[in-house]
């Protein structure tokens, strides 16, 4: 059976590293938990670290956070849909918004529930995902700041989420200026400029973060130690928080090439034959892991040890060559994961989740 390990020591190392850096720069931050897909033992591990602000894009996950600890500040990090507004107001203390109509609905729902709901207005800064256009922002704010049971506590933005537009000092300065304009015009305090996600951390580490930016929403760098500017691991952080382990369920020496009439496999692929490989063989391992769990392109491994040949719905096929590591049936093959691979594995009901 395949399973996923979370190495709590490495997670703590990354958390403490980020905590120290944010404290040094006077920046508040919350942890994005959406990667964990509501896995309760992993959410509890975050809270054990002292995380007091959790962000997620699934309201059921925030409901679970509130069930574990009602005092944790919860933030819903995508524009709410009309059909889940009641739960958003119930389980999220804050939500990210970019639609005037939705904010009016939130106000009405907050009045019904006798709750105060806080809002971060998302601003478009070039990546063309969610966000109010800058030229429309003052008018947008004017229409909502007086709504009952709704409080605007920040301006935010997302970069590098759709078109790959990277954050820059200039873009973040512009967002900070929007905050100043609104505060002066309406005599209202907006506490947060929430311009930071994991991709913005290198700007902070390189002392290029404008002073006005004072709030981050961090997921990927916490879990992978990743510098998303150059796809490296940040010095002082670990890229080994998650470890996927899959068991070998068959290990035999077999020909390199298939025999018989070839047609498309269930994925629509047709094997290409390299005739120079006729007569050659290698050791092949089949793992109890498949496309139902994860796309192999998101698995990280030492390519000197083996090569991934392909996958079916429930099995992953490896070419071990002459099997220099002496793998055998019942043994484990271990992988590190790219972000999207971890997301798939954590969302799989069939992969056991463990803490090391």
Automatic annotation (TrEMBL):
Signal peptide: none
Keyword match Isomerase: yes
Gene3D superfamilies named among the record's database cross-references: Alanine racemase
Keywords, ordered alphabetically: Isomerase, Pyridoxal phosphate
UniProt GO molecular function: alanine racemase activity; pyridoxal phosphate binding
Domain Alanine racemase N-terminal: 9-225
Keyword Isomerase: yes
Pfam families named in the record: Ala_racemase_N
Entry's Gene Ontology cellular component terms: cytosol
Cofactor(s) needed for function: pyridoxal 5'-phosphate
Source organism superkingdom: Bacteria
SUPFAM superfamilies linked to this entry: PLP-binding barrel (SSF51419)
PANTHER family according to UniProt: ALANINE RACEMASE (PTHR30511), LYSINE RACEMASE (PTHR30511:SF3)
Protein name: Alanine racemase
Source organism (scientific name): Echinicola pacifica
């Amino acid at each position: 059976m395949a399973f996923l390990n979370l190495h709590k020591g490495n997670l703590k190392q990354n958390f403490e590293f980020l905590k120290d850096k944010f404290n040094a720069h006077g920046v508040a931050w919350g942890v994005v938990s959406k990667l964990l897909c509501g896995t309760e033992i992993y959410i509890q591990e975050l809270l054990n670290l002292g995380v007091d602000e959790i962000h997620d894009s699934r309201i059921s996950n925030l409901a679970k956070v509130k069930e574990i600890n009602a005092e944790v500040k919860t933030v819903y990090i995508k524009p709410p849909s009309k059909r889940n507004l009641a739960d958003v107001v119930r389980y999220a203390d804050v939500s990210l918004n970019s639609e005037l109509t939705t904010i009016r609905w939130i106000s009405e729902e907050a009045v019904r529930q006798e709750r105060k709901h806080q809002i971060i207005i998302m601003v478009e800064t070039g990546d063309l995902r969610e966000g109010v256009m800058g030229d429309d922002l003052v008018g947008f704010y004017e229409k909502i700041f007086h709504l009952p049971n709704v409080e605007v506590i920040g301006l935010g933005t997302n970069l590098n989420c759709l078109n790959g537009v990277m954050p820059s000092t200039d873009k973040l300065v512009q967002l900070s200026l929007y905050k100043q304009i609104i505060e002066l015009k309406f005599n209202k305090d907006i506490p947060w400029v929430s311009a930071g996600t994991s991709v913005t951390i290198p700007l902070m580490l390189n002392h290029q973060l404008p002073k006005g930016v004072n709030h981050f929403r961090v997921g990927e760098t916490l879990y992978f130690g990743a510098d998303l500017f150059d796809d490296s691991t940040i010095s002082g952080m670990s890229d080994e928080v998650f470890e996927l382990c899959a068991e070998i369920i068959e290990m035999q020496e077999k020909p390199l090439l298939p025999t018989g009439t070839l047609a498309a496999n269930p994925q629509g692929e047709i094997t290409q034959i390299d005739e120079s490989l006729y007569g050659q063989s290698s050791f092949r391992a089949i793992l109890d892991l498949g496309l139902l769990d994860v796309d192999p392109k998101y698995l990280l491994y030492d390519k000197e040890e083996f090569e991934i040949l392909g996958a079916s719905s429930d099995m992953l096929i490896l070419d071990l060559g002459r099997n220099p590591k002496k793998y055998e049936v019942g043994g484990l093959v271990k992988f590190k994961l790219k972000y999207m691979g971890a997301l798939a594995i954590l969302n799989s009901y069939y992969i056991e989740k463990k803490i090391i």
